[in-house]
């Protein structure tokens, strides 16, 4: 189920509940069952969905609600709040400050859109007057440096990398040092991906992280990853200190639920979403407007 369909299903379930003459336990349960099914079909992790259902039932205790209360509104508000709660880990991520050098390290599986997202992130800030720079510490994938170089050149963003050096830690450290000397205020380090979660990848990420001491580590995840989202995000979080999430390919036919699971697994907020292959197809992610839009 794509994200728009998920929103549609939840809205319809709420509307149906709203149309009922009397809102009793059965009407509430029917409504929650439809919402639960829609969330599961959108690849939201089972435990999250179950917790959400329990929470709503606790908040909306029909027996306790005084006769004058608008039960419909209370239920709608509870659903809205619970969806926001899943997407909001409760603490903001590190926010870089213009003019002060920050190192931002990107991690994620190969094909997730990591390299594309590094450039989008740099370009977004450049347009706002920052001085970003890109470091290609991906020595694993042939062509990774060329791809980053091409993107960086197109966006007129300084870059650093090597065709010869095979040690990602060395490149990362050199790149960060160089751009600190050049007074760049947003030094973005692109790391290697792998096709799947592997011990070697996680070890490399740890080493790059230890050597460059990033202010923020951003986990990039393809929105079409499905039910594997929670475990994948958790595996990255357990290796390095992931502090924020960017979900890519939100323009496709992806099931959007992975975003909710990634937040839960990493306890980190989604800060941006990728909505296309182009440099400017990149949006700031805000929980409440996102959920409002989702519910139409
Ligand atoms: P990496 O291996 O994680 O560095 O992934 P890449 O940055 O090379 O991206 C893999 C593919 O996904 C490329 O074809 C990108 O153009 C594409 N891609 C990345 N982000 C998005 C997005 O938000 N939407 C769409 N439609 N494609 C994307």
Automatic annotation (TrEMBL):
GO terms for cellular component: endoplasmic reticulum; signal recognition particle, endoplasmic reticulum targeting. The lineage of its organism: Eukaryota, Viridiplantae, Streptophyta, Embryophyta, Tracheophyta. This is Signal recognition particle 54 kDa protein. GO terms for molecular function: 7S RNA binding; GTP binding; GTPase activity. Transmembrane segments: none annotated. It catalyses: GTP + H2O = GDP + phosphate + H(+). The keyword Calcium does not apply. It is found in: Cytoplasm; Endoplasmic reticulum. It comes from the Eukaryota. Keywords: Cytoplasm, Endoplasmic reticulum, GTP-binding, Hydrolase, Nucleotide-binding, Ribonucleoprotein, RNA-binding, Signal recognition particle. The M domain binds the 7SL RNA in presence of SRP19 and binds the signal sequence of presecretory proteins. Component of the signal recognition particle (SRP) complex, a ribonucleoprotein complex that mediates the cotranslational targeting of secretory and membrane proteins to the endoplasmic reticulum (ER). As part of the SRP complex, associates with the SRP receptor (SR) component SRPRA to target secretory proteins to the endoplasmic reticulum membrane. Binds to the signal sequence of presecretory proteins when they emerge from the ribosomes. Displays basal GTPase activity, and stimulates reciprocal GTPase activation of the SR subunit SRPRA. The chain holds residues 1 to 296 of 494 of the full protein. Residues 269-282 form the SRP54-type proteins GTP-binding domain. Component of a signal recognition particle (SRP) complex that consists of a 7SL RNA molecule of 300 nucleotides and six protein subunits: SRP72, SRP68, SRP54, SRP19, SRP14 and SRP9. Belongs to the GTP-binding SRP family. SRP54 subfamily. GO terms for biological process: SRP-dependent cotranslational protein targeting to membrane.
């Amino acid at each position: 189920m794509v994200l728009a369909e998920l929103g549609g299903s939840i809205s319809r379930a709420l509307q149906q509940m709203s149309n009922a003459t009397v809102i009793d336990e059965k009407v509430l349960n029917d409504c929650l069952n439809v919402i639960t099914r829609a969330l599961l079909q959108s690849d939201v992790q089972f435990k999250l969905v179950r917790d959400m259902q329990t929470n709503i039932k606790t908040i909306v205790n029909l027996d306790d609600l005084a006769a004058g209360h608008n039960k419909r509104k209370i239920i709608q508000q509870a659903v809205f709040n619970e969806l926001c709660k899943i997407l909001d880990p409760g603490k903001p991520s590190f926010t870089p400050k213009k003019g002060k050098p920050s190192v931002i390290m990107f991690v994620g599986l190969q094909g997730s859109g990591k390299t594309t997202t590094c450039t989008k992130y740099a370009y977004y800030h450049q347009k706002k007057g920052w001085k970003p720079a890109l470091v290609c510490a991906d020595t694993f994938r042939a062509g990774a440096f060329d791809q980053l170089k091409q993107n960086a050149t197109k966006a007129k963003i300084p870059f650093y990398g090597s065709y010869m050096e095979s040690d990602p830690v060395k490149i990362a450290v050199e790149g960060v040092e160089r751009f600190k000397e050049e007074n760049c205020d947003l030094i973005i380090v692109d790391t290697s991906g792998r096709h799947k979660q592997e011990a070697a990848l996680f070890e490399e990420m740890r080493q790059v992280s230890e050597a460059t001491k990033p202010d923020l580590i951003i986990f990039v995840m393809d929105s079409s990853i499905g039910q594997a989202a929670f475990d994948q995000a958790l595996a990255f979080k357990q290796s390095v200190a992931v502090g924020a999430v960017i979900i890519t390919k939100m323009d496709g036919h992806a099931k959007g639920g992975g975003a909710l699971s990634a937040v839960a697994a990493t306890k980190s907020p989604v800060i941006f979403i990728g909505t296309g292959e182009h440099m400017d197809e990149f949006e700031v992610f805000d929980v409440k407007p996102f959920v409002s839009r989702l519910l139409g």
